[in-house]
């Protein structure tokens, strides 16, 4: 049975939504959750029926969002440190955390270790697209200062993830730039372009709009750009929904139309852009699996982060990454 280590203390709202998400996941998937944190608190939120369906590992410390990421290496009694150690020691196949993302990435990279041929891991996220399959974007915050080699490795990791998890046989990989022409870009992207040409799925430069129009399946960028892109996109979505509500309230015909479309149209739109639908971002390139969720994750997000960890563990993503990079050495 697949074992998933879960940082039960790391979210903004304490262990309650995390444990609720674990319970929801257990209702549909067969796996063993290993909850790491304050035993007494965990048990207080765990329904008695599920008491024998989980394991609990005591952790007396919690790394807060205001702490330095590098401090995590010293705080060996923290919930995230102990959760990552379970993966390092092969006592769990994956770790899921809604806690300090920097601490999780630091610990996963240094304690679990990187895959062969990977110089830096990348944080990947799925973005909404007009086609049925979402677009994978990486890196969105793990590596702010990238080299061309980093971007090349990100492309290989994204291609492997799209094949193994998204089920796309021949994914199209694009390099985010300020124009689709081969000559466009800055010093970093121009050098990365040449390296990425070694990937079978590389189609060249893409622009920001290509993330959402379905032209490519994977978009590669440095973590600084990717993080700004991610947060800007979240802001745009929030603003659009706010503006829609404002205009609907001002017009009776709009209110009637909105009521008629509420379930089908608006419901599907919200599902497309709702972070909780996929739950977290995988840290690609480590010798294991780490899913990093928002600190504000609700139970649904945690449940789906666990599902993502299970699918990742059952797949050949890491093996495919190794093959792609070793073949192109």
Automatic annotation (TrEMBL):
It is found in: Cytoplasm. It is an enzyme of class 2 (transferase). Pathway: Lipid metabolism; phospholipid metabolism. Keywords: Acyltransferase, Cytoplasm, Ligase, Lipid biosynthesis, Lipid metabolism, Phospholipid biosynthesis, Phospholipid metabolism, Transferase. The keyword Cytoplasm applies. Its EC number is 2.3.1.274. Pfam families: FA_synthesis (PF02504). It catalyses: a fatty acyl-[ACP] + phosphate = an acyl phosphate + holo-[ACP]. It comes from the Bacteria. The keyword S-adenosyl-L-methionine does not apply. One of its GO terms (molecular function) is phosphate:acyl-[acyl carrier protein] acyltransferase activity. InterPro entries: FA_synthesis, Phospholipid_synth_PlsX-like. Belongs to the PlsX family. PANTHER family: FATTY ACID/PHOSPHOLIPID SYNTHESIS PROTEIN PLSX (PTHR30100), PHOSPHATE ACYLTRANSFERASE (PTHR30100:SF1). HAMAP family: PlsX. Homodimer. Probably interacts with PlsY. Catalyzes the reversible formation of acyl-phosphate (acyl-PO(4)) from acyl-[acyl-carrier-protein] (acyl-ACP). This enzyme utilizes acyl-ACP as fatty acyl donor, but not acyl-CoA. This is Phosphate acyltransferase. The lineage of its organism: Bacteria, Pseudomonadati, Campylobacterota, Epsilonproteobacteria, Campylobacterales. The gene is plsX.
């Amino acid at each position: 049975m697949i074992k998933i280590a879960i940082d039960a203390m790391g979210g903004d709202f304490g262990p309650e939504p995390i444990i609720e998400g674990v319970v929801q996941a257990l209702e549909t998937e067969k796996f063993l959750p290993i909850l790491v944190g304050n035993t007494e608190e965990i048990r207080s939120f765990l329904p008695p029926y599920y008491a024998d369906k989980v394991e609990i590992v005591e952790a007396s410390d919690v790394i807060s969002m205001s702490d330095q990421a590098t401090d995590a290496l010293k705080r060996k009694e923290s919930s995230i440190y102990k959760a990552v150690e379970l993966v390092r020691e092969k006592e769990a196949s994956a770790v899921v955390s809604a806690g300090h993302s920097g601490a999780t990435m630091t610990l996963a990279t240094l304690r679990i270790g990187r895959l062969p041929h990977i110089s830096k891991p990348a944080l990947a996220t799925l973005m909404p697209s007009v086609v049925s399959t979402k677009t994978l974007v990486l890196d969105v915050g793990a590596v702010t200062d990238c080299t061309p080699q980093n971007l090349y490795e990100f492309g290989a990791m994204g291609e492997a993830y799209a094949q193994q998890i998204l089920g796309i046989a021949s994914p199209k990989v694009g390099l985010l730039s300020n124009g689709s022409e081969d000559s466009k870009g800055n010093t970093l992207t121009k050098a990365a372009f040449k390296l990425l040409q070694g990937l079978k799925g590389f189609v060249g430069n893409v622009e920001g709009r290509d993330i959402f129009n379905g032209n490519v399946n994977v978009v590669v960028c440095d973590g600084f750009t990717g993080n700004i892109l991610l947060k800007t996109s979240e802001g745009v979505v929030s603003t659009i929904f706010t503006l829609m509500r404002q205009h609907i309230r001002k017009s009776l015909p709009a209110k009637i139309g909105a009521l008629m479309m509420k379930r089908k149209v608006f419901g599907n739109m919200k599902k497309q852009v709702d972070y909780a639908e996929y739950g977290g971002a995988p840290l690609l390139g480590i010798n294991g699996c780490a899913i990093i969720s928002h600190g504000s994750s609700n139970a649904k997000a945690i449940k789906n982060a666990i599902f993502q960890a299970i699918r990742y563990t059952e797949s050949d993503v890491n093996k495919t990454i190794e093959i792609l990079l070793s073949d192109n050495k």
